[in-house]
């Protein structure tokens, strides 16, 4: 994918939506297109990882494995991003990500991304702010799911 297309795609992604053209070009220069066939594991939970992915085409499944059985948590579609939690917290991956369909994604090396947003303060501020909102939303959704499960269990 050429850089101008990458910039146009980045404009539509929530985390990057406050950035100007020049800032988007800096991020676009770090992107590498990758493909994954349906059923391929892209990220495995409890492993170290340093890549962030942006879904361009297709759908990925975010899952956890409980007693060897896959439990799908959610599905991500074009424009969605994943892998950033492990990068921001320097943590192991919190879930497994599987190509639910054939997918085309952008891959962004976490170290390159962190170096850029640490060096470019304005980019960093805008991106971190949007990431914080995204993570807060995910946490709220998980909290609701947790309370729904507790309510269901208390019925028995």
Judging from the principal axes of the Cα atoms, what is the shape? globular
DSSP helical segment count: 5
Structural class: alpha+beta
**CATH fold descriptor:** Jelly Rolls
Strand order of the largest sheet: 1-8-3-6
Helical proportion?
Answer: 40-55%
Mean of pLDDT:
88
Rounded Rg:
16 Å
Q: How would you name the CATH homologous superfamily?
A: Jelly Rolls
Summarize, please.
The chain is 43% helix and 28% strand. The protein is α+β, with helices and mostly antiparallel strands and 156 residues long. It has a single domain, classed as Jelly Rolls (Sandwich).
Structural account:
This protein is α+β, with helices and mostly antiparallel strands. It has one domain: Jelly Rolls. Helices cover 43% and strands 28% of the residues. It has five helices and eight strands. The protein has a four-stranded antiparallel sheet. The protein has a four-stranded antiparallel sheet with strand order 2-7-4-5, with no helix packed on it. The longest helix has 34 residues. The chain is globular. It starts with a helix and ends with a helix. The relative contact order is 0.19.
Question: Secondary structure elements and their pairing?
Answer:
Elements: H1 3-11, H2 21-28, E1 31-36, E2 41-43, E3 51-57, E4 60-66, E5 69-76, E6 81-82, H3 84-89, E7 96-99, E8 103-109, H4 110-119, H5 121-154
Antiparallel strand pairs: 1-8, 2-7, 3-6, 3-8, 4-5, 4-7
Helix pairs in contact: 1-2, 4-5
Structure characteristics:
156 residues, alpha+beta, Jelly Rolls, 4-stranded antiparallel beta sheet, 43% helix, globular
């Amino acid at each position: 994918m050429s850089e101008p297309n990458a910039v146009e795609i980045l404009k539509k992604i929530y985390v990057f939506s406050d950035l100007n053209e020049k800032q988007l070009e800096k991020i676009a220069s770090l992107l590498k297109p990758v493909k994954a066939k349906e059923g391929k594991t892209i990220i495995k939970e409890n492993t170290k990882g340093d890549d962030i992915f942006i879904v361009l085409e297709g759908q990925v499944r975010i899952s956890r494995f409980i007693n060897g059985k896959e439990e799908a948590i959610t599905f991500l579609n074009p424009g969605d991003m994943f892998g950033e939690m492990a990068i921001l917290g320097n943590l192991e991956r919190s879930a497994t990500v599987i190509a639910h369909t054939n997918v085309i994604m952008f891959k962004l090396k976490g170290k390159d991304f962190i170096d850029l947003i640490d060096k470019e303060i304005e980019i960093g501020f805008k991106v971190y702010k949007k990431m914080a909102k995204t993570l807060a939303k995910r946490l709220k959704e998980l909290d609701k799911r947790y309370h729904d499960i507790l309510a269901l269990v208390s019925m028995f």
